[in-house]
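Good morning C.,

I know you're traveling, so I'll keep this short. The sequence:
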Amino acid sequence: MLIREEKPEDIAGIRGVISAAFGRPAEADIVDALRQRAQPFVSLVAEHEGEVVGHILFTPVTLAGGGDLKMAALAPMAVAPKYQVRGVGAALVLTGFEHLRLLGMSAVVVIGHPSYYPRFGFSQADAFGLKSEYNVPDDVFMACELDPGALAGVIGTVSYHPVFRETQQH
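The C-alpha cells, ready to paste straight into the viewer:
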C-alpha cells in the first residue's frame, strides 16, 4: 500500500472511491470544487496495485479571533468498501498529519465518528473551546493538536471553506 499525493490522473479513481464509500457523489463534488479553490490543499491517495483504494482531504479552516493559528479540516476521508478495516484510513490520517505539519498547521478538526477518530488524538472540540459553524452534536465535532498546546486558550467558531456551505445549498 502506497500513500502519496494525488495526481491529475487519480481524479476519476478518487471520485469512484468517495462515491462508493459514501453511497452518493456529493462528497466527490465537494472535493472537485475544493481542488479548484482551496489552498493549501492536501489530497492524498492510498494506492494498491496501481488502483486508488482510499482518499483523504485536508483544507484550511478559519477561527474568528484565532490570530495566526493555522488549522485544517479533515473532510472527507473515504476508503473503497473492500479495503475498509485494513488500516488504509489510519495510514491516510497519519500521513496527512505529516503533510500538515510541514505546512505549519497546528491543529486539525473533523466532523466524524466519535469511536474512530480519538485513536489519532482527536477529542471533542468543545473541550478546547471550539464550536463548529454547523449544527452537529458535540461528540462528532473533534479537534486534534498537531503542536501540543496549540489550542490552549483558543475559543471560537470554526468556519470551513465556503465550498462546503455552497454545495450544501444545492
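Safe travels,
E.
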